[in-house]
Design a protein that fits this description.
Layout: H1 5-20, E1 32-36, E2 44-45, E3 51-56, E4 59-67, E5 76-85, E6 93-101, E7 105-115, E8 121-129, E9 136-145, E10 153-162, E11 166-174, E12 183-190, E13 193-203, E14 211-221, E15 230-234, E16 237-245, E17 251-261, E18 269-279, E19 286-292, E20 298-308, E21 311-323, E22 331-336, E23 350-355, E24 362-367, E25 374-380, E26 390-394, E27 400-407, E28 416-423, E29 429-436, E30 454-457, E31 462-464, E32 468-469, E33 477-482, E34 485-488, E35 499-501, E36 506-512, E37 520-527, E38 530-538, E39 555-558, E40 563-565, E41 569-570, E42 578-583, E43 586-589, E44 600-602, E45 607-613, E46 621-628, E47 631-639, E48 657-660, E49 665-667, E50 671-672, E51 680-685, E52 688-691, E53 702-704, E54 709-715, E55 723-730, E56 733-741, E57 756-761, E58 766-767, E59 781-784, E60 792-794, E61 800-802, E62 808-817, E63 823-833, H2 846-875
Parallel strand pairs: 30-38, 39-47, 48-56, 57-63
Antiparallel strand pairs: 1-29, 2-4, 3-4, 4-5, 5-6, 7-8, 8-9, 9-10, 11-12, 12-13, 13-14, 15-16, 16-17, 17-18, 19-20, 20-21, 21-22, 23-24, 24-25, 25-26, 27-28, 28-29, 31-36, 32-36, 33-35, 33-37, 34-36, 37-38, 40-45, 41-45, 42-44, 42-46, 43-45, 46-47, 49-54, 50-54, 51-53, 51-55, 52-54, 55-56, ...
Length: 876
Amino acid sequence: MKQSPLSTVCRAICRAALAVIASACVMTANAQTISTVLLPADREVYSKQSTSATLFNGEPFIAYKRCATSGCGVVQEIAITYCVSNCGTANPVWRDRVISNAPSSVFGEYVAAAIARDGNPMITWVDVSFAGASPSTVMVARCIAECDSERPRYVSHPVATLASGSLDRIALIDAGASGSGQTVAFIQTAEGQRRLRVATCVTGCASASATYNIATVDNQTGRTTENRISMTAYAGKPIIAYTDFGNDVQRSELRVARCTGACDTASPAYSLSSIFGVTDSRAMNLFSSIAVTAAGDHFVTYQAVVPVSPDYQVLTKVALCMAACETAAPTYSDQALSSPTAVAGARRAAASGFVAFGQESVAVFHAGQDNAQALRRIDYTPGGPIPAPTTVDTLTSGSSVAAVHALGRTTPSLPAYVVYESQNSSNVVRFKLLSYAGVAGSDTTPDAFSFSDQTDVLPGTVVTSDPVSISGIDAPAPISVTGGSYSIGCTATYITTASTIMNGDIVCVRHTSSASLATAVNTTLTIGGVSDVFTSTTQSTPVDMTPLPFSFTDQFDVPTSSTRTSEVMSVSGFQVPVPISVTNGSYSVGCTATYISTASTIAPNDVVCVRHMSAATPLTRVDTVLTIGGVSDTFSSTTAAAGGTDSTPDAFNIPLMSGLTVNTLQRSETIAIRGINTVAPVSVVDGEYSIGCSGTFTSSPGTISNFDTVCVRRTTAATPRTAVTVRLTIGGVSATWYAITAGGATPPVVIVPSPIAHNAFLGVPFTSPAPVVSGGTGPYTFVAYTLPVPGVTLGADGELRGTPTFLGNYSLDFYVVDANGQTSNGRLTVNVSAAAVAEAIAVPTVSDAILLLMVMLTAVLAAWQARREALAQRAH
């Protein structure tokens, strides 16, 4: 979100105007109702921050950890309870269900819930095996059917598993925080480092086989903490509030990480900023809740237990981003809403808030300030006076308020809810629900919205717009479409009939592009009388249906009567699905376990493999022809000669990998083995290998066949810029795979000058001296990770050797690894030029000198004769 100077000024004016009527604008006329959330009598809530709440079908939905025995014994459950009727009254009806029961595991303290873009609930938690501190797993359960029925159907899957260390306390999920699927934020601790990590689902997000891109957003050295993190999203980009709890000087900070781009990839861009910090040797608890205004300004409501010698203060605060909210240096209005007297002991605190009915005002609910039994509310407008808090509930003596979840609405026609924990003197926890009745709204005219048009689309294809968020209404507004269909929530369901839409909903439209070239198709969406047109225009050039040429690698010396499978081939160069067929074999689009021999179609950039049975006789070739869109290639296999065997493969190399995350199980690239006609022994040192890279890895010796594929894996180093190796040996031929972690903030131990320039001549043998290395511990090993110098290779000793085969300027990047695995990287450059011509500078011999003198004398005589003839003609 970019903010113009004009918008900043206007926003400041609006805030100043709202400050005059600060408390009058915030739900003062709403009636409140307090009720108890009914839970099974034989179940005990785990307590503290083990709960989360959201709105499902507009009503409260609570996910929590509970124990089936008093005092939380072995049996533990992840459960949900949600309101099904009478939700805003004193007697709501609740439905309670178990999502996961794990007698052999202990669930981490923190549970989180959110609603997916299909409208169904999702829950996440940390699962730790009773067998020990590891492995710890972040789990997600997502409802896939009958979600509001007596028997909802949930499917669960792991997000991330940590082989060592721990997944510290917290995992929070937010729906729709990326273009792909759900996003989970969690804290991971290992070896004194505390990492904020974000996992975004990229495939199968509602299935048991979901896959995630996982990135480390912040990496700090510090202690673990009970502080929770909170996450929301704006325009599909996550915004996370979390605590960096302590480093060498015990500084604790409330921080915000806001995604600015590539949010659903393995390398997202996040801006990190600090809101509040304190340096003290004692603990500071921060319980924060983050939300976002309709304009995209994030704000955090929180309580900070601040040491004030010899006691503590519990401050309730609101930090609202005022400008540059997507940058690493935003401007915050961080306002303390309370000034309590000091109390003895670091008290647990909780706070949560929401923007009240689309205003710039924030309704903040908090507990634990100076009376742990009281739940209070403050209606605050940034820039305005701070009103006195209002006590909305007081618990019985010996009880205390724990977690607070404010489920506010920006539309006043709907109720607002607050879910909070009630913990008695025996540490038994129950939930309470605070309900605020809605006020009838009348504004159904939204702010202007705009779709981004699309050009150069393929003819006759379904084109979907980007999502737009609807704002500026406080009642359901009519929505209709012409020339296409629309989806509220941008789910897989699109309709053409009129309906209604709420403030804050997102909507997409779609249509089928024209069957003709350079032709536009328009879809008009109208909401509350406000319209915009989504236009797609087809490309002007004819559709390309001819793939680029492709080529399979033939196989030789293969065993007789064996199944031969080609390498994976990616096909491209065409724009729409084209026919694919095979002769004398079978093929698999996607290179799965399913192969067919009947004709079908293949899409651009799909991968394909072919296979056949090799001949039953020696020295016999079998051909399989694959044809795609009229382009063909033949995959051939030739059996080995009878008798002799060869178990020594051609030399192979496993490309190194760098920039890896520390303490992470990493797999190498897949390579194919060539040059054997019988099975060869395979073994590994310092790692594991997998034949076929199917997911089954082993460290035990085995055998491998010609043209089989293989990869290796191991856990990366625990320190930055450090290499670990795996040595793979096949039939006596070995290769070493290097896995190198990303660089840290400290300079590398090993230092190598870079770049180093060399000159060489085309076709002339060339050897360069090794770079001079300093630091670290010898011996040093050099490993190339690019090889752009034709005919020249880099030895493990750092020398370049070979005979250049092409002219040009080349560069070669390399790593140097010392005896302890510490690394540094550098670059070598080689300028390959043509060899000098020796004849051009040859020294004349004696005979050469006499010949040269005769030529010069002949030239002088010829010039003298020509001059005599010219003078004679002039005399006549």
